[in-house]
Amino acid sequence: xxxxxxxxxxxxxxxxxxxxxxxxxxxxxxxxxxxxxxxxxxxxxxxxxxxxxxxxxxxxxxxxxxxxxxxxxxxxxxxxxxxxxxxxxxxxxxxxxxxxxxxxxxxxxxxxxxxxxxxxxxxxxxxxxxxxxxxxxxxxxxxxxxxxxxxxxxxxxxxxxxxxxxxxxxxxxxxxxxxxxxxxxxxxxxxxxxxxxxxxxxxxxxxxxxxxxxxxxxxxxxxxxxxxxxxxxxxxxxxxxxxxxxxxxxxxxxxxxxxxxxxxxxxxxxxxxxxxxxxxxxxxxxxxxxxxxxxxxxxxxxxxxxxxxxxxxxxxxxxxxxxxxxxxxxxxxxxxxxxxxxxxxxxxxxxxxxxxxxxxxxxxxxxxxxxxxxxxxx
Amino acid sequence: xxxxxxxxxxxxxxxxxxxxxxxxxxxxxxxxxxxxxxxxxxxxxxxxxxxxxxxxxxxxxxxxxxxxxxxxxxxxxxxxxxxxxxxxxxxxxxxxxxxxxxxxxxxxxxxxxxxxxxxxxxxxxxxxxxxxxxxxxxxxxxxxxxxxxxxxxxxxxxxxxxxxxxxxxxxxxxxxxxxxxxxxxxxxxxxxxxxxxxxxxxxxxxxxxxxxxxxxxxxxxxxxxxxxxxxxxxxxxxxxxxxxxxxxxxxxxxxxxxxxxxxxxxxxxxxxxxxxxxxxxxxxxxxxxxxxxxxxxxxxxxxxxxxxxxxxxxxxxxxxxxxxxxxxxxxxxxxxxxxxxxxxxxxxxxxxxxxxxxxxxxxxxxxxxxxxxxxxxxxxxxxxxxxxxxxxxxxxxxxxxxxxxxxxxxxxxxxxxxxxxxxxxxxxxxxxxxxxxxxxxxxxxxxxxxxxxxxxxxxxxxxxxxxxxx
Lengths: 378, 470
Known about the structure:
Shape of chain A: elongated
Largest sheet of chain B: none
Radius of gyration of chain A: 26 Å
CATH class of the largest domain in chain A: Mainly Alpha
Largest sheet of chain A: 3 strands, antiparallel
Number of domains of chain A: 2
Distance between the termini of chain A: 76 Å
Shape of chain B: globular
Oligomer: heterodimer
């Protein structure tokens, strides 16, 4: 301890043990992983002609990775799906299987991150977001997810108030004043990078995790009629969404207390009755602003309304038996259902969103129905 | 006029120490400002969002770097120079080169932070400053550390004591960690997630092997120096020291639990984290058994009050850290804002509080001027309040975050993150309080270091007046 040289050797060799393990040892163990096929032959060799995974990353995506790092996205986003014992990442729909070391061998910089203030992005390319959606989200996340705290990046876009080449129309509440954004090269790189992030292949060391089949099975049993198409869609969805849709369908079809009694007018097919009740399938109202849908589900609707260019004039009592009795969770489920059946595909509605809107209209009388004009003016 | 030996030593180091403390103070303010901006951006994502150089990610990273390398680095230099010279009973060597290297260090960090904000960030934890800066920082660091060791070598007494081990070890560990990480990440880059293991190992070890041993060494020096009692159960200190040296470099990797790396890496990290209760218990016994023999002096002596706040915070939250490294708890808190709790506890609650105490103890001795008790006391109470608010918000918020994130049916933005937003607001308020507190600290020390900053103007005008008369 008294001789500085002996002391230095002592403390540095204590450090060297860790170095031997984490640098030398780890490099020996998994420093030279190569792409491989999903299934190996019995003797451990790659079958001839089999497709190898992971694939090389496209050049534009690699450039996008650089932008992703330079903007500091890693501060809030991880890119790793944890093992089943360590968390519910797969159940949350963040990946088909846990990530393994081999998935990252072509990444130049590793951005697996350590904090999730934002969702995990290891499989963002697998979630069905369009390019336009990703661009809008980069430009202003709050225009798509109102509660998001992700900082907007308007500096990556050029704002226009008219449509031009490559421009993307922003989704906004006021329809009469559209805004457009033109992505810069950097924005395109980032979006290409995000689209490239997917671990959609199996490796010998890790296969896809079968999601809790029980939940999906029971939810299938509880639904009244099931088309083959929606069946297969349902099993692809994350568990929580599938169960929300299933419970929404039950409410839609139920004619007893606790049900919604929706099908009597809008029909089990979602097509409504021509001239009397508007359709839900492909309806611009159903696929549009969630706030209006939530309001209608709480208080009902009366008077003239234009759906997909066709005018209807009828009265819709507040849904539910007794009328107006649907809870936040039930409204969220049934709206999620009508937005995702009969070919519809739109974002889900959460109970928190319903509660939020309910608190803004708490002064409204329970049976005071909305009119189309009133909803459009909000 | 005859000086005592201590006064001669202090005089030899006065300008070097003044330089480092003054720069440390400025970095502290810069970090406080950046910390506030980052916290404000979490409560309101539109805050300053149109400036590309000011995205949340960049500000957050710049804040951590300004804090660790700017404030941490400079204050480590200042305080170790003083303690090592005092304990060696030797005058400081290489004053000119020390200041020159200090200037390079600070210019390097300034350029590095500008690089981060300008979009040249690296992806490695605590090595985010652009790669061109690092040789500069490494060389200036080596010069400073070498002269501190040279001063130590010219000591009059052969035997060394605990503060010297801890401080010298921290001075030596940083360059060793850096060389290992730099070689594995830049010169001879590893492939795949090996990089992530190394970068996380460096980032965490930096806190455990650079800031922590230094602050422990300062506490080992100040507690007996102020209370006038020898360290209680001093024979345990050497055990505690070697435990940290052998266990800490292994324990830091438990954050990779469940990640895309071989399972033995997080597993060994967990085991070693649990074993860390030995060095924590040793340090805690040594410090608190000594200081609490005389509770009055802890309460009345401000530097000591700062130091004891730091050591208590070290003990309590290191035990919390051990609990959070257990796999059953780790899977809840792993990616939550508990990480912020760990970081801020280390750098604010423990390291900074001890450095504040050391600076308040040291400055009157080297400058001969006293800092008003009221100002020091205001600084203590605002710091204590700010740190407690910050840590509690991150701790409770982190647990909420972690538990809710484990419920796959909850929507991410509208349920999980919405429920921790109130805690972000509390941290924003805490950073305002801490910012004020640190402003008071910097004013306190600058007033003592440079009592009359415009003196040279008066002198030169006097000179010119004299010349005019002549």
